[in-house]
Amino acid sequence: MSAYNEILDLLIDAAKHPLRQLQTFKARTGRMAVGCFPEYVPAELVYAAGMFPIGLWGGQTEISRAKEYVPAFCCSVLMSGLEYGLNGTYKDLDAVIFPSLCDTLKCLSQNFKVAVPAIKHIQFAHPQMRKIEAGVQFLESEYGRVLSALEELSGTKVSDEAIAEAITVFNANRGALRRFVGLSAAHTDVISPSARHAVIKSGYFMEKPAHTALVNELCDALEALPESKKGKRVLLTGIMADDEAMLRILADCGLAVAADDLAQETRQFRYDVPEEGGAPLCRLAKWWQIFEGCSLAYDPEKTRIGMILDEVEKYGVKGVVVCMMKFCDPEEYDYPLLKQALEDKGIPALYMEIDQNAEAQAQTRIQAFSEII
User: Fold this and answer.
1) Which residue, 14, 18, 64, 201, is the most exposed by fewest CB within 10 angstroms?
2) What is the pLDDT of residue 358?
């Protein structure tokens, strides 16, 4: 077996078994674990507090009890997260952190607090006016509240030095993942859409230093291979494309993921937290100020559209797959602008509705899309 296959297997296994990863960590270390709901949570603070941050991005599960708390038009990633809390899947978590980036997150957070009282609930708000200094100051104060809650949970005071070290550790991981997505675009013969997704997703369920080391090892192995840009190159955009059936169909239809603009993937590591420019909490808050390219980050100029077009040109993308999370209003508001921009450039686009709790019915549509690009 080649070196890159061995590393890929480790990362794919971690992506498929988050609960096992969590339980193994707690059994080995005796330390606490904190779940981070989508989309943007300062997981550095969890790490600095000596705890294990684990990403909570829902999953395929039968929705039963969650319907008692939220309406059926709640997006599936948050609906399934509440269901997991109610059915005990999250019982090994000591706390959960909720951002308040959309109306659904705000409501679901409060429902989770009431429905799952055994898990400590921490909520904070991002400022919409994020470019002005007052926005940075507000978010810094919100992060301070998160930090105080984590300190109360752990019984330990978190130093600025610990937060600064966490920022360095997480930035190293961001750098490794940026390196990986660049290399994966040049090696689509060995990095399938499913494998690409799993490498990134595994980072939500592994300790950051270990994940960074494996991703860099994988990158080293890829760099030793000759480039092979196999398949018709596409870009995925949206909240997430965490649908194994759809990713397999992309590959079966000869499509290769050359780039993405997904909240679960590249949006997370597109920018580093500044290493200089104030106290660590302030620098964490400045990440939200410099961040661009998401429907949940207020941007009247809609720079996300231009960023996607730039990626299309950079990676030789032949078509864009819009992974539209069902019932996600912010993403839906961006879609008409994106659709028009792609049409103006003559770039084919495929609109795919993403619902974690629905059977994939994508074969025919993806096949037809493949034939026109």
Assistant:
1) 64
2) 56
